[in-house]
Amino acid sequence: MENSKFRISYYIIIILVGLLAFGLGFTNYNNKVPNEVYNVYVDGEVIGTIKDKDSFEKYINDKEVSVMKKYKVDKVYMPNGVSIKKVVTYSNKLDSNDYIYNKMVNLKQFTIKGIIITVSAKNDDKYETKNIYTTKKEIFDDALVSLIKSFVSDKEYNDYINSTQKEIVDTGSIIKSIDLNQNVTYKKGYISIDNEIFCDSGELAKYLLFGTTEKQASYTVKDGDTVESVALANKLNVQEFLLANSSFNSANTLLYAGQEVNIGLINPVMDIAIEVNSVKDEEKKYGVVVKYDESMIRGTEYVETPGEKGLYRVSREYLYINGQLSDTITLNSTELKPAVDQVVVKGDKVVPHIADLSYWAWPTDTPYTITTYYGYRWGTMHPAIDIYGPGYGSAVYAANNGTVVAATGGCVAGYLGCNGRRGNYIIINHNIGYYTTYMHLASIYVKVGQVVARGQKIGTMGNTGEVYPVPSSYSPYSGTHLHFATTRGDPSRGGMSGSPFDPLSLY
Question: Which helix (H) or strand (E) holds 436?
Answer without folding.
Answer: strand 434-444
